C-alpha cells in the first residue's frame, strides 16, 4: 500500500505561543486555499474563539436589549396613566438630556477604576430610577417626580462601549498582551479582527434597538403598562452582573502618568476628536428625524401601529449590512473609508424621500427604509474605529461614550427638526431632514479630513507599550 508523502519540515505540526500549545494542520490544500477541501473558519468563528469572548458577549447582549425598551415603555406607561403624550415625551427627553451630561462622567470613572467597580453600582442606581418611575406612574405621583425618577436612569453605563473596550484589549497584539512579533502582517491581522469585532458590536446595537421596542410594546400590551419598564430593569441589572463577572477579559486600569493629565489626554483634546464628534452629532440627526417622520407618515395614512415594524426594517437592514461588512477585509485605513461610507448613507437616505413623494405607499416606504438602513452600520463601524484610534488608550470608555453622547444629542435635534417639518409642511417633506443631516455629516467629514495615516492612541504609558 503506497505511503503518503512526508510532511515538509517547514510546516510544523504544532505552533507554540506564549500562553498555549496549538495543534496546526498544514495538510494538502486545494486551489481555493482550503485545508483538505474544508473551508477555514470565518471571521466571526475566529473572533469568538478568543477565550472569554462568548461569556462577556452573552451578558452584554442581555444588558443592551433594555436600551431599546425603556423609552417606548416609558411613553406607553406615562401616556396610559396620565393621558398625555406631551408629558411622556417631555419626560423621555429629560432622561436623554441627563444621559448626555452624566454618561461621559460615568465612563471616565469606568476608565479610572475599572468596569466591574463602577458599572455595577451605576446600573443599580439606574435600575432603581426605573423602578421609582414605575411606582410614580402607577400611584399618581406629581409630574415632577416622573422627571426626577427618569433623570436618575442617566447613570446607565455604556455597555456597548465597555464591550468594544474589551475587544480592543483582547485583540491587541493578537490577544497575548505583548511578546509577539510586531510585524506588518500581525498588525494587519489584529486590525482585521478588531474590524470584525466592531462590526459585530454595531450589528448587536441594531438588533437590540430592533428587538427592544417590539418586546416593550408586547409586554406593556399583553401584561400591564408597567411590564416593559420592570422587565427592562431586571434584564439590565442581570446582564451587567453577568458581564462584569467575566474579570479575565476586563481591560486593566492604566497607571497614572507624569504630566498635566495624569489619566492621559482628555478625549475632547485628542487630535481629530472634536470634528469626529460633530460628525456623530449630524449622524444622530439622521436617526432621530427618520424615526419621528416615519411615525408621522404612517399616522397620516391611518397605520400608526405599523410604524414600529416599518422602522424595524431599517434596523434589520443595518444589522445585516453590519455583519456582512465585518466579514470583509477593510480596504484602506478608516480615515479614507469614512467619507465614502457617509456618501453612501447620504445617497441611500434619498430613497425614503423618493418612495414617500412618488408613491405615498407605506409598503414601498418600508422597502426603501430596509435598503437605506444598509449604509448605517458600515458608517457607524468606521466612525467607532476612528474614535478608538484617536482616543487615549487609558480613556477609551470615555471617548466612545462621548461619541454615543454626540449621537444622542443629534437624535434629539433631528427628532425636533423632523417633527417640525412633518407638522408644518408634511410628513413626506420631513424625509428631507435625514437627507440634509447625512449631507451635513459628509460635508463635515470632508472639511475636517486629515492627510495623515492611521491615527495612533496618545498618552500610552511607557511601561505598557508592546515590546518586540
Report the CATH architecture of the largest domain: Up-down Bundle
Report the principal-axis shape: globular
Query: How far is the first residue's CA from the last residue's CA?
Result: 49 Å
Integer tally of domains: 2
Alpha-beta classification: mainly alpha
> In total, how many beta strands?
2
Largest sheet: 2 strands, antiparallel
- CATH 4th-level superfamily of the largest domain: MFS general substrate transporter like domains
Low-confidence stretches: 7-36, 173-183, 258-262, 451-468
Percent strand: under 5%
Mean pLDDT: 75
How many alpha or pi helices? 18
Helix content: 55-70%
Report on this model:
The protein is globular and about 55 Å long. It contains 18 helices and 2 strands. α3 packs antiparallel against α9 and α8 runs antiparallel to α9. It has 468 residues and is an all-alpha fold. It has 2 domains: 208 residues, MFS general substrate transporter like domains (Growth Hormone, Chain: A); 195 residues, MFS general substrate transporter like domains (Growth Hormone, Chain: A, Up-down Bundle). The protein has a two-stranded antiparallel sheet. The longest helix is centred in the middle third of the chain and has 39 residues.
